[in-house]
Amino acid sequence: MKERITEQSIRLFEKKGFTETSIQDIVDSLGVTKGTFYYYFSSKEELLMDIHISYINDLNAQQELILGDTTKNCKEKLYDIVYMLIKNIELDGPSARVFFREMRNLSEEHLSEIIPKRDRFRLNLQGLLDEGKDKGEFTQNLKSDIVAFGILGIANWSYQWFNPSGKTSDQEVTNIFVDMILQGIELR
Known about the structure:
The protein is 74% helix and 0% strand. By secondary structure, the protein is an all-alpha fold.
């Protein structure tokens, strides 16, 4: 039941927004009582936090697998990370929209748990860029901190416009993004 509440809440938060969705809306859409909701979550914000933790933990775990692949160079890992972020829109788009759009509705206490996890993803990406510089795959004057923010801005904003069933596939979007990124940082 906890998974059903979470999945339905993601759909409602995506459609109506967090503040416009009441606990009553959630339980009515599932045909359960508020008692059922409160058995699993102490508040609507705790539910939102659960959605955020699940989303960012999953992204971090996927990124760790990519970064740990010793058979690939930094350019290939960069491609895989961008592809993972774009593909995630198809696989988990509603959660992505809730994550990016509704973070502002988390308390400072909850944000203090989410922000370090989000920062870890960025810092891992920055570390990959630095490794690519060290290995001669990327230009030496690369400002890896700024480029990491740029890559995340490009990929993460895609949830706003990318349509997985549209005319451009997730791989084509990734190829375009990575080509655009590498043309600016690839060692020539």
